[in-house]
Amino acid sequence: MIAILDYDAGNLKSVEKALGFLGEESIITRDRREVEQADKLILPGVGSFGAAMRQLKKYEIDKMLQEAVAEGKPLLGICLGLQLLFEESEESPGVRGLGILEGQILKIPEKEGLKIPHIGWNSLQLMRNGRLFLDIAPESYVYFVHSYYLKAKDEKIVTAATEYGTYIHASVECNNVFACQFHPEKSSAAGLKILSNFAAIQRGDG
């Protein structure tokens, strides 16, 4: 069972639908018991960093996430869910992120002819044999919607990157924690394969 964490940040049904298409059982929840019973967790999200952190704390999902990661339960952050896993964001100065991973969320720099937010399909540079990208072709295109981007402190956790006005860490992997800045649930066959790869990961793998 995969628990899709509900903290009023949207993007839940599309993730649930994609998992259902793959034949994976999932539940949208913020109930502690259901989260504890789940085999894996997905933290989706759209919206602002500061507001999302307030909601995570309101429902005590921040504590559930920390506990799950400590137990070795596989966790996938998607879009804003990736950003929240890190320490801070320029979008919400003074607001602490979950701090599960080390790095900063920065504003995509403005450049002439560059539209922000970054919306649409972009290709991935794959590296370090990330487990999410098993059998994914190099330079595969995935779907992005974001104005802020990750700069991880340790580049060894970066498994995919893209270019959009700057070099963007598009996906990371650290032990049982995985995250994508892009939306796999909206990224056609490649995205479904990424979700399928996550669903196949077992506690203690890697």
What does this 3D model show about the protein?
It is a single chain. With 206 residues, this protein is an alpha/beta fold. The chain has one domain (2-200): Class I glutamine amidotransferase (GATase) domain (Rossmann fold). Helices cover 27% and strands 29% of the residues. The chain has six helices and 13 strands. The chain has helices at 12-21, 32-37, 49-58, 61-71, 80-84, 188-200; strands spanning 2-5, 26-29, 40-43, 75-78, 88-89, 103-107, 118-123, 125-126, 141-146, 148-152, 158-163, 167-174, 177-180. The strands form three sheets. The protein has an eight-stranded mixed beta sheet with strand order 2-1-3-4-13-12-11-8, sandwiched between helices. The radius of gyration is 16 Å and the shape is globular. The model has no long low-confidence stretch (mean pLDDT 95).
Number of strands: 13
CATH level-1 class? Alpha Beta
CATH topology: Rossmann fold
For the largest beta-sheet, the strand count, sense and barrel status come to:
8 strands, mixed
Q: What's the tally of helices? A: 6
Q: Superfamily at the CATH H level? A: Class I glutamine amidotransferase (GATase) domain
Rg, Å, rounded:
16 Å
Protein structure class: alpha/beta
Number of self-contained structural domains: 1
- Strand/helix succession: EHEHEHHEHEEEEEEEEEH
Tell me what portion of residues adopts beta-strand conformation: 25-35%
Average of per-residue pLDDT values: 95
Shape: globular
| Sequence stretches where pLDDT stays below 50 over 5 or more residues | none
Residues in helices, as a percent range: 25-40%
